[in-house]
Design brief:
It is built from 8 helices and 13 strands. The chain is α/β, with parallel strands linked by helices.
């Protein structure tokens, strides 16, 4: 028997991809209810069937088993509990609950056991956090990691559909960001904080600590937006706790689900946004010994922010619920 599914924010980049991924993975859906503002698209397709998109008022919605929220921060803060009270497990893509210690923040390949702690809401981590942690985790597990210095090269789609309209010159007023993104880079993502870091950089630090259940690991992030449509790229340098060989690192990465090594610089084989676009796997290349840290390791990571960075991870969380009979 299938489940009753709701998607709030079904017409957005992430919402639409959730529909695609549910279909691709043959998730058992009995009924699907789609919500958005009512000012944009009024219909979507699921398994080639046209589904009406209902304007979300927050007052009337059906009983569901799983509700994906993909509509910014305010909507889940106001209405996630109402869905839970009507029997749903809410999987929220926004930052609304990610730092709440009572709400699990899950990457299914890393901390699936946390699903058991949910009281009705599960948070999906930030896209850059997911893409960075997936290949770092098998290394962390075997060798331990003291600190990570990370710089991101994030695509415009990470900021939603309106931001893509800016890149495509289909927006009036033209700039979604503080200034032009085309032929440019913006070395700041999110809100500025007193510390000098941005909110996106802080998310990478605090979410990683929560997912790894490791308050001691040191993480310093610099998050940058580039005029790329899809796919976030990430440069990391890490200090491991013990000695390693590159051969052992590669073997460990090869064994980890969802990670692909793409690392033959002589043949120009290293991950890049167009390679990873619309793929669920996270790609790793430029794997090399870092000469600055003791037991230092550097690598380059790339993954699709809308897929594994959002929709695919969210659907995998729903699959955990299914397997754990949580719904
Ligand atoms: N883009 C990414 O790479 C990414 C990655 C991880 C997490 N996220 C998170 O996922 C969420 C969605 O991101 P996105 O990129 O899909 O954004 P988006 O393309 O801008 O889509 C936003 C969606 O939310 C709907 N929405 C906005 N306000 C609403 C309201 N008051 N009531 C009902 N629906 C409302 C929009 O409906 P209309 O179409 O009718 O306007 C649209 O369906 C955000 O919380 C974001 O932080 C995004």
């Amino acid at each position: 028997m299938g489940l009753r599914i709701a998607i709030v924010g079904a017409t957005g980049l992430v919402g639409e991809k959730i529909l695609t991924v549910l279909d691709e993975r043959d998730f058992p859906v009995d009924k699907i209810f789609l919500f958005a503002t009512g000012m944009g698209k009024t219909e979507e397709y699921f398994k080639k069937e046209k589904i009406e998109v209902t304007p979300f008022e927050g007052t009337e919605f059906p009983e569901t088993d799983v509700a994906f929220f993909s509509a910014g921060t305010d909507i889940p803060k106001k209405f996630a509990k109402d869905f839970v009270n009507k029997g749903a497990i809410v999987i929220d893509n926004s930052p609304a609950f990610r730092e709440d210690e009572t709400i699990p923040l899950i990457i299914p390949e890393i901390n699936p056991e946390k699903i058991k702690e949910t009281k009705g809401i599960v948070s999906n981590p930030n896209c850059s956090t997911i893409i960075m942690l997936l290949p770092i985790y098998p290394i962390y597990k075997r060798w331990g990691i003291k600190r990570i210095i990370v710089s991101t090269y994030q695509s415009v789609s990470g900021a939603g559909r309106e931001a893509l309209f800016d890149l495509d010159k289909k927006r009036n007023p033209p700039h979604y960001f503080p200034f032009a993104i085309e032929k440019n880079i913006i070395p700041h993502i999110g809100k500025p904080l007193e510390s000098g870091f941005s909110s996106e950089e802080r998310k990478m630090e605090s979410e990683s600590k929560k997912i790894l259940s490791d308050k001691k690991i040191k993480i310093s992030a610099t998050c940058v937006r580039l005029p790329v449509r899809f796919g976030h790229s990430i440069s990391v340098t890490m200090e491991l706790k013990s000695e390693f060989t590159l051969q052992a690192i590669k073997k460990q990465l090869q064994l980890f689900p969802g990670v692909v090594i793409y690392d033959e610089p002589k043949n120009a084989k290293y991950p890049f946004p167009l390679l990873v676009e619309d793929k669920d796997e996270v790609f790793v290349g430029r794997i090399r010994v870092d000469p600055v840290f003791k037991n230092g390791l550097s690598m380059w990571i790339a993954g699709d922010n809308i897929r594994k960075g959002a929709a695919t991870n969210a659907v995998q969380i729903a699959e955990l619920l299914l397997r754990g009979e949580g719904v």
